[in-house]
Design a protein that fits this description.
Layout (H helix, E strand, L loop, with lengths): L1 E4 L10 H28 L4 H8 L3 H8 L7 H10 L10 H7 L5 H10 E8 L10 H9 L7 H14 L10 E7 H5 L5 H14 L5 E6 L13 E6 L4 E7 L2 E5 L2 H17 L3 H13 L2
Parallel strand pairs: 2-3, 3-4
Antiparallel strand pairs: 1-7, 2-5, 5-6, 6-7
């Protein structure tokens, strides 16, 4: 079975009808939450400046939350509920608001990442969102055409960074990434951003549950000819395969296809540089900048 979606996380566009309606519904959730937060703040007799100070944000950011222009993190929602003595009236929104921070197609994938015991990702021209620094993410989103407005960019940067909680989760999932050399060499955002991204990759690669491998461009054999994909396995053993290209994305659940994708990933891993050589490769690339 394949579930198709009209928008992509890295590639936005596609079928406008159902996607637009779902995105509008998500924005409605965020707006309703913001109105509830404002109502409770006013009822508590608290100005935005004081409320923001107790949350660790500026008054302008609080205004963005209340007007539905910016989505607060789950922790911020919990703290706001506590500061306002809301008794759960804000935290009841937490799950819906968290889902709304992602493009509608990616909400299911974001949930799968949280449930994963194993994640296998092969990436070709842009690094996986789980590996990106804040600056790299912003640079990639800045390159989108048609261009994204600044509020959308900041919202997506925050959402993408939030996904990286997967690295600190316990029990720790097994995470494997094979990166095409082209993705490592592309200087999104310029040399400073590029350098910071490579340093970040080397730090992530030190984690015991993470394997990062490089597929050199000069490899004659590479089973990744069909492009980037991610295989996720949940605790009960069910697998999912996520792909996206040129404004469309798909989540496959059919056992034969997910088994073949996992096998294909294993072949790609065997053809890429081993982990230690991959680290040497990335260190050499960093040293050349």
């Amino acid at each position: 079975m394949t579930a198709s979606f009209g928008d992509g996380w890295e590639n936005c566009g596609g079928e406008a009808g159902g996607q637009a309606a779902a995105d509008k519904a998500g924005q409605g959730v965020v707006t309703a939450f913001g109105q509830s937060m404002k109502t409770l703040r006013v009822r508590a007799g608290m100005e935005r400046e004081e409320f923001g100070r107790r949350l660790g944000y500026s008054a302008s950011t609080v205004a963005s939350f209340e007007q539905g222009r910016r989505i607060p993190s789950p922790r911020t929602i919990e703290l706001a509920d506590e500061v306002l003595g809301a008794g759960g009236l804000l935290t009841v929104w937490k799950e819906q608001v968290e889902r709304a921070q992602y493009p509608v197609f990616f909400q299911g994938m974001a949930t799968l990442e949280k449930e994963a015991v194993e994640l296998l990702a092969y990436d070709t021209h842009v690094l996986n969102g789980l590996l990106q620094t804040e600056e790299y993410t912003r640079a990639v989103l800045d390159m989108r055409r048609p261009v994204l407005d600044q509020e959308t960019i900041e919202q997506r940067v925050t959402a993408r960074l939030a996904r990286q909680d997967i690295f600190s989760r316990w029990p720790a999932p097994l995470l494997s990434f094979v990166l095409e050399e082209a993705a490592l060499r592309h200087p999104w955002g310029g040399e400073v951003v590029h350098r910071g991204q490579l340093e970040h990759l080397l730090l992530i690669a030190e984690k015991r549950n993470v394997e990062i491998q490089v597929m050199p461009t000069d490899r004659e054999y590479n089973a990744g000819v069909d492009g980037a994909f991610t295989v996720i396995t949940r605790r009960e053993g069910k697998r999912f395969v996520y792909t996206e290209a040129q404004g469309t994305s798909a989540l496959q659940t059919e056992p034969e296809q997910t088994t073949l994708a996992a096998a294909r990933y294993g072949i790609i891993r065997s053809q890429a540089l081993p982990s230690r050589e991959s680290l040497d490769f990335m260190e050499g690339l960093l040293g050349s900048l």
